[in-house]
Amino acid sequence: MNDALDYLEANLDGEVDLEHAARLAACSLFHFQRMFTYIAGVPLGEYLRRRRMTQAAFALSSGNGKVIDLALRYGYDSPTAFNRAFQNVHGMPPSRAKDSGVKLTAYPRISFTLSVKGETSMNYRIETMEPFRVVGMKVTLPMNVEQSFAEVPEFWQKSVSRMPELLPLMNGNPQGLLGVSTCMGGNTFDYYIAVASGADIPQGMAEYIVPSCIWAKFDCVGSVPDAIQTLQKRIVTEWLPTSGYEYANAPDIEVYLEGDQNSPDYCCEAWLPIVKKTQ
């Protein structure tokens, strides 16, 4: 993660290749964005915007840049877009940054250090599974963690009406209603609300073959979605750094079992695709 951060910082005033940053962090772009957000406490895109506007303020206050030049340097298509971003961070237009005595906001570079809390136990098992087929509703989303966090719950709400049609198709393992994120690369990813099935595909649904993989399967207890979102954050920030594993090129899977999902005792599972670290 620090190698990725070094790259981002070195390219604040140029084009940032987020796919390259993700490779430095040894994971897919989606997983990199998610890990960054969980660990840093701020979305990756927002962090880059804050750091760029911090650097732009330094340049303006020292008299080393014109607004139009800084807009291009920091990746904005127009001075208007740059002005808007600058004002969101500093509370003033960039033209005022050169004035004596103005109060600007600086967001220093962050760095990642390992601090494992381990305050509450996490129950998990590691299993290797052969490929299996799922059938269900599908939505294609941009490779943007913040946006997907908002759109996936909306997709679940929209899919409720098709559950009576979907659930009878379940005739394979794993048992349960599945949330499958095929976030393994590219600018978009598919999210499925599905069941393991060998049945024909109903109209308006789709199939997906989950590849063979090693999975770390975590028990989750609590109401959905808060409990599973909290668990996923703990997996990334507490379990993964010290586990001897890293993300594998396979989907994330949520397994929702029968029961009242609003109950504090509701049980489900979060599956993390993993591979042993090579170093």
Task: Tell me what the structure shows.
This protein is elongated. It has nine helices and nine strands. Strands 1, 2, 3, 4, 5, 6, 7, 8 and 9 form a nine-stranded antiparallel beta sheet that branches. The protein has two domains: 2-96, Homeodomain-like (Arc Repressor Mutant, subunit A); 124-276, Alpha-Beta Barrel (Multidrug-efflux Transporter 1 Regulator Bmrr, Chain A), CATH 3.20.80.10. The protein is of the alpha+beta class and 279 residues long.
- State the secondary-structure class: alpha+beta
| Beta-strand residue fraction | 15-25%
- At CATH level 3, the topology of the largest domain is Multidrug-efflux Transporter 1 Regulator Bmrr, Chain A
Under CATH at level 1, the class of the largest domain stands as: Alpha Beta
Q: Provide mean pLDDT, rounded.
A: 88
User: Any idea what the shape is?
Assistant: elongated
CATH architecture of the largest domain: Alpha-Beta Barrel
Radius of gyration, CA atoms, in whole angstroms? 22 Å
Number of strands: 9
Low-confidence stretches: none
